[in-house]
Structures are given as C-alpha cells and as structure tokens.
Fold this protein.
Amino acid sequence: MSNIQEQINILVEVQGVEVEIHQADRLVHTLSDEAAALDRIVAEREGLVSAEKETLDDLKKSYRELESESKINAEMIVKSNEKLRAVKTNKEYQSILKEIDEIRKKNSGVEDRMLEYLETIESAEAAVKDTEAELSGFLRSYQEKKETFAVKQKREQQAVEALNEKKAQISAKADPKIITLLDDVKKKVRGLAVVPVQQAICMGCHMNIPAQLFNELQRFDELRFCPHCHRIIYWKEPG
C-alpha cells in the first residue's frame, strides 16, 4: 500500500469519527433544547397558577372591602335607630326613617355584590386547585424527563470526549500537512470533504470526472481533487 493510500485511509477514518462526533453533538444539543422547552412549559404553568392566585387574592380583597362597607352601614343603621328614639318632632322622625331606608337599600346592594363575589371566589378557588393539581402532575413527569435527559446528555458528552480522543489518536498517524489540507477543504464544502470516485463519478457532487483523472487516481501517487466540487477524491475498488 502506497503512502498516499495510507494517508487517504487515515483521512477517511478521521472523517468517519468526525461524523460520529457531529451526530453525538447534535443529540446533546437536541436534548438540551428539549430540556429547555420543558423548563419553558413549567414556567408558563407556574405563571398561570400565580396569575390565578393573584386574581383570587384581588377578589378576596374586594370582598373584604365590601364586607367592611356592609359593617359600617350596619353600624350607621344602629346609630340612626338610636337617634330615632331621641327625636322630638315628626319631621326629624321622617328624615331619620328616610336616612335608615337609604342606608338599608345601599347595604342591600353591597350584600348582593358580596354574594356575587362569593360565587366568583368559589369558582376561582376551584380553578386554582385544578391548575395546581395539573402543575403538580406535570412537575412529577417533568422531573422524570429532566433526569432522563441529563443521563442521556452525560452519556453523549462522554461519547463526544471519547470520539475526540479517538480522532486525535488517528490524526496523529497522518502527515500534519494533509490534516491541515483536510481542514481547509472542510471549510469550503458542505458535507464530506473526502469522497470516493466510483465508475468515474465523484460521490460528493455526483459529477463525472475526466477519464485521465480517474486513471491517475488509481496510482495513489498524490492527493487529487474533484474538478467540480473540489473535494479530496480517491479511487475505491468496486466490490
């Protein structure tokens, strides 16, 4: 086997390991993206629970304000009744009766609103309870998935580290100039930088190469490039 053929074999092997590294890296990023998506869903659901609780707190606050207003009205009625017992003229008596009637009407409206608030508060409390239960169930599933993602991510990261070490060991066997050349080609092309030629067709761009170049490839006396896509090409014996 010629030295060039050996170098090409090394480049192909390095490239194969790089493909594995890329796949493992992509899986790591995918797992990271899926974990981040889960985090966003949790944040959204927690935000929903927080918003519903805030709404419930506002409803309860409004109810307490009405309750306080109703209490003040009740106290005003008591005081008016006390004044009623002390009046000396019919005009004063009628005036206080009118005052009491107006306070009672006002308080009746307040009590009606309090009943409406109680119904709304009851519905809001039920909604918060349901949302919290859903969040609790989702969080259990979330923790399990996050742990699974973490285990897979760690495994793939370890795989990447092992593959990088393997790549370094294989690359050390090659001529540094050829490795540099491989890196240069990788920057210029998409996909594989080293491809075989089969039946005079470049397997990188699937274009026919000149017959003379195809014959020269079989000598393995120097590195050659596809005239169309500029990848490193080599002859691969049919089999």
Summary: Residues 56 and 124 are 6 Å apart (CA to CA). The longest helix spans residues 3-86.
